[in-house]
Write a structure and sequence with these properties.
It contains 19 helices and 5 strands. By secondary structure, the chain is α+β, with helices and mostly antiparallel strands. The two termini are 45 Å apart.
Length: 528
């Protein structure tokens, strides 16, 4: 009954409640001392942690389930644990460990007939390890084909969907994005029919990448947005809080049961010697036991108090750090405005006055005339350079006319250079954004475009800007050489750091999708 209730919450995407009921099921299995039920419930608890994105905890529970399956001699639970352990090791790039557990699961399955759903799931994961990490294209494709075959034989909607996801991912990596979209749409349809939010998010994310590979920026953005909206509806702060409470509750109750059993044993011993000791000794023993209980209770309360204070301190530090980021960026923008105004008003006027004075000079010979003309040309060039620098520091159109006009002017200037073609799509709104928000968007676009000009070798860039009353969505895509996104964290440049700092300050989110040779797609969501 508890597991059925847990499955209902799983289908709704409420993984915190799913974990709670699986924990309750495990406690009931412990009470019954039923090895089969304990193993099954342990696997379910591990799965709940996995869907809550707590991979290290999920891996620990999976190893516990595997040990139980071995001790209980239940092969079906053992190959399930082996398969999931192999999947987690694949996700953390531990290829040798991954293949060891996946091969063990395959060996156990080959001793049986049927089990097509499990075979489909196993070969989907094995295909990922063989193709993506071991770079064995032929063997990887064979595993993906077996996953499709066994998925169809099983009639299991979820397993068929998972196999189609992996097949679509393979074709996308092999530069056949059209074929990839066919498989990924089929997977999305199957997950939707199964009412499985985790699968729907997975399919939407993969579809967004496939659309991006085919140059379908709008469809890619819409798929990523749907995945983002669904993810936000599932993983809220309350979910994380509930997860921690359920985990702590289970461990605490289990410890309390152990303490009760220990106390019961001590009581029985006391009964055996009650007639051998004096009343004073009995009082001393009871007093000591009470003191121990009070001490343990105090330590537990103190530990919880320290944890709460630590969480509060971490939250305050995060707020302070964000305020410091904001202050630095605001000071930087004010300094840009001041310097731009000084250049335009002071130096620009001085250069213009110098030219006027030269124009007033009329008594000079032919040789002097050439020098004067050269000087005038230098002054004109200097005036234009001052205006360019002033505009780059703080475009007048941004402060006076808003982000839409400023971005259009920026795109026109870049296109005029002939370095690359930039296409700008803006879903306009009558409402103008806050000036600090417009400046942040403009600087982010500048930083991303500068990175693409310097490193991507692209000849085309697409920019999409859309916003409503709550959110701002910005998508920038190029057709350049791409790069390994894991290197962003260790980048020595300040471009990406500036981008992430501005987005963090506005409670936003950045997703960078890229692969060498496949171009780059940057999706940004900001809070107004």
């Amino acid at each position: 009954m508890l597991i059925d209730s847990a499955n209902n919450y799983f289908k709704k995407g409420n993984y915190a409640s799913y974990l709670k009921y699986e924990m309750d099921a495990l406690k009931e299995a412990d009470r019954l001392n039923d090895c089969n039920k304990r193993c099954f419930a342990t696997l379910k608890v591990a799965a709940a942690h996995y869907y809550l994105l707590q991979r290290p905890i999920a891996l620990q529970w999976m190893h516990n389930a595997r040990k139980l399956a071995i001790s209980c001699n239940i092969d079906s639970f053992r190959w399930t644990a082996d398969r999931q352990i192999g999947a987690i090791y694949f996700e953390t790039s531990k290829d040798d460990s991954s293949m060891m557990y996946l091969k063990e699961a395959e060996s156990l399955l080959n001793k049986t007939d049927g089990n097509y759903a499990e075979r489909s799931y196993l070969y989907s994961i094995m295909g990922e390890t063989v193709y993506r990490h071991l770079h064995k294209k032929t063997e990887g494709k064979k595993c993906y084909d077996l996953a499709i075959k066994y998925g169809e034989l099983s009639g299991d909607t979820v397993r068929m969907a998972f196999a189609n996801i992996k097949q679509g991912s393979y074709y996308n990596s092999e530069n056949d994005c059209r074929q990839a979209i066919i498989y990924l749409k089929r997977a999305l349809s199957l997950y939707t029919a199964a009412h499985l939010p985790e699968g729907i998010m997975y399919a939407q994310n993969m579809l967004g990448w496939a659309y991006g590979s085919c140059g379908m920026a709008k469809e890619s953005f819409e798929a990523m947005l749907k995945q983002k909206v669904l993810r936000d509806s599932i993983f809220r702060d309350e979910t994380a809080r509930q997860t921690a409470e359920y985990e702590t509750l289970y461990k605490t109750e289990k410890k309390e049961k152990e303490n009760l059993l220990l106390a019961k044993d001590n009581a029985q011993k006391q009964l055996r010697i009650v007639h051998e000791v004096k009343a004073k000794q009995q009082i001393i023993i009871i007093f000591i036991a009470g003191l121990i209980i009070l001490t343990i209770t105090f330590l537990l309360l103190y530990y919880r108090y320290k944890q709460k204070k630590k969480e509060e301190l971490d939250e305050r530090l995060a707020i302070q750090q964000k305020l410091r980021f904001k202050a630095v960026l605001e000071a930087e923008e004010k300094e840009r405005v001041r310097i731009a105004r000084e250049l335009h008003d002071s130096l620009g006027q001085m250069l213009s006055a110098a030219k006027m004075n030269m124009n007033a000079m009329d008594s000079y010979n032919e040789e002097d005339a050439k020098l004067i003309e050269n000087a005038k040309k230098l002054v004109d060039d200097s005036v234009r350079e001052v205006r360019t620098i002033s505009h780059n520091l703080m475009p007048v159109s941004l402060t006076e006319k808003g982000i839409i006009t400023a971005l259009n002017e920026l795109v026109i200037k870049i296109n005029d250079t002939g370095l690359l073609q930039v296409d700008l799509i803006i879903n306009e709104s009558e409402e103008r954004l806050n000036s600090s928000v417009e400046i942040a968007i403009y600087r982010i676009v500048q930083e991303v475009i500068n990175n693409m000009i310097k490193h991507s070798k692209a000849n085309k860039v697409e920019i999409l800007l859309d916003y409503n009353s709550d959110k701002i969505y910005l998508s920038i895509k190029d057709n350049g050489v791409g790069f390994d996104t894991t290197k962003i964290e260790h980048s020595s440049g300040i471009g990406w750091k500036n981008i992430f700092s501005r987005v963090y300050m506005m409670n936003g989110d950045v997703q960078v999708n890229s692969q060498p040779g496949r171009g780059t797609l940057v999706n940004i969501e900001l809070t107004k």
